[in-house]
Amino acid sequence: MLISLADFSNHNKDVFLVSIDKMIDRGALMSRYSRSSELDIREVYKHEFKDNPNRGRNFYRRIFSEYGDESIAELVTAQVGIQNISNIASKYIEENRIGLSYLEKSSRYVEYDARKNGEYLYLKGESLGFSGSISERYEEYCDTLFQTYSDYREKLYLHLEEMFPFEKFSEEYPPEESDALLKKAYTRALKSRVLDEIRSLLPSSTLTNLGVSGNGRAFHHLIIKLYNSDLPELQRIGEELFLELKKELPELIDDVNSQHSVSLANYLKERDRETCVTLTSYNGHLVSLRNYLPEREALARVYEARNFLLDCNKVQAAHERDDGSFVLRDSFIRNNRRDKPGRWYEFVPYTFIINTNYGAFRELQRHRMLSVVRRKLTPLYGYDIPPTIRSIPELRKRFTSIMDRAPSIWKMIKNTNGESVAQYTVPFGYRYPVILHANLRELCYFVELRSTPQAHYDLRMIAQDIYASIKRVHPTLSKIIKFVDLHDYPLGRMRSEIKKERKRRMSE
Length: 508
Fold this sequence. Notes:
The two termini are about 45 Å apart. Helix 6 runs antiparallel to helix 19 (about 405-415), helix 9 packs antiparallel against helix 10 (about 230-250) and helix 21 (about 440-450) packs across helix 22. The protein is built from 23 helices and nine strands. Among the domains are: about 1-75, no CATH class; about 75-105 and about 200-275, Alpha-Beta Plaits (2-Layer Sandwich); about 285-385 and about 430-500, Gyrase A, domain 2. A hairpin with a 2-residue loop joins strand 3 and strand 4 (about 120). The strands form three sheets. It has a four-stranded antiparallel beta sheet with strand order 6-7-9-8. A three-stranded antiparallel beta sheet has the order 1-5-2. By secondary structure, it is an alpha+beta fold. About 50% of the residues lie in helices and about 10% in strands.
C-alpha cells in the first residue's frame, strides 16, 4: 500500500510535514508517538489510518472524552476568524495567552470611521440589551464619538503637516533618497500619528476583527470561559465558536458539555466572583514600581542561575557576584535588541501598577509573557488628552466636552444593565490602571521593543518609565537593557516607513 505525497511531504527523510486532510486524523496520528514501537509514524498511518476514515474520530472520542487526556487535544489546531466583535470582547478573548495566537485589526493603521448601511461600526444598543431612551442616549453618544473622530482626522493631518513640514524632514535624509519615496513615507507617518491620537475617541463598543490560530485544548478552554461570561456578546461568540469548531473537531469540542467542563466552569465563575468595592479613584503615576528584590539579592539569583546553566567550574571571586561585572559582559556581547539576554535574567521579578489608558492597554496586553491583572473598564479614573489635541484649544475643548459625558452614560447603563455591560460606553482615552508582573528578561524585551521610534507614544512612555524604575532600584542589572531609546520623535514611524517603501520598490 502506497502513501500519497498528499499525506506527507516526503517518504524517506526523518523530518517531514504531515499533510493529511483531516485535522482530527493528524492529531490522532501524532499522539501515537508516545505508544508506538514503530520507528516511522508513516507506517502507523499506513496500517491504522489510511483505510479507516473514522480512526481519528474514534480515538479522540475514546481517549479525550472518556479518559480526559487533555494533552492530546494540543495536537490538533484550527484557524478561526472572529469578526464584528467589540473591543471589550476581543480583549476578553486575548486574555487566553497559552495555546492561541492572535492578529487583530489595528487602530494605528486602519481608519475606523467607515460606515456600513450608513451606520458607524460599533455594537448597537439592541445587541447589548438596551431599549428605549437608554439605547437612544447610548447610540447618540457613540455616534458623536465617531463623528468627532472623523472630523479630527482631517484637521489633525493638516495641523501636523504645518507643525512638521515635509521639507524639514526630507533634509535629514541622504540626497540619494528620492523625494517620491520620502514623500510617501512622510504621508504614511503623518497618517499613523493622526490615528494614534484620535483613537482615544473610539468607544469600547467599536467593532473589530480577530484572527485566532491555536490548538484544540486552548479553544476548548476558551469556549468554556465564553459560555460562562456575564456578557451576552461573549456568550454568543462562545456558541458560534463551538458550532464552527464542532465541524472540524467534533469529538474534542463536544466535551465542552461534559461534567468535567461544567465543573471547571463553575469553579471559574466562583473564583472570579467580585467580593470587593471598585476603587473610585486612582491618581498614581503612569508607572509605579510596587515590588522588587534588593539588588544584592537579585544579582545573587542571576549569578547562581547563570553559572549553573553555563556549567562554570572555576571558583569565581565573590565580588563578581556582588558588583555585577558579569552583567556588563552579558550586555557587551549583545549587538542589537534581537540578541536576547540569557534565561538567568528571568530570576528577577518586578510588580508594577501601570496607569495607562484603555487604548494603550490593548497593545500592552499583546505581550503574553507579562502577567496582567485588571478590573472592569470604567470612567472613574479620568482620561488622557492626546498631545496634539491638547495643544489646539478648539480641538481640546470639543474633546474634553465629549469625554466628560462618558461618566453619566456609563452610570445610567450600570444602574439598569450592570457594570459589565456599562463597559461598552467607555472611550479608549479613559485611564485603565492594571497590575503588571514580569521578570527582567521579558521587561528587557518589552522596553527595547516598545521604546523604538515607531511605537505608539503611550507605549513609549510606559517602556521608558519602566526602564527608569528598574534603573533606579537596580542600577547594575539595568545595564542589560542596552537598546532602550529615550529620544523624542515627532513622526516616529518615518524611518520605518522609508524602509518599508524601499523594500516594496526593490521587490517590484
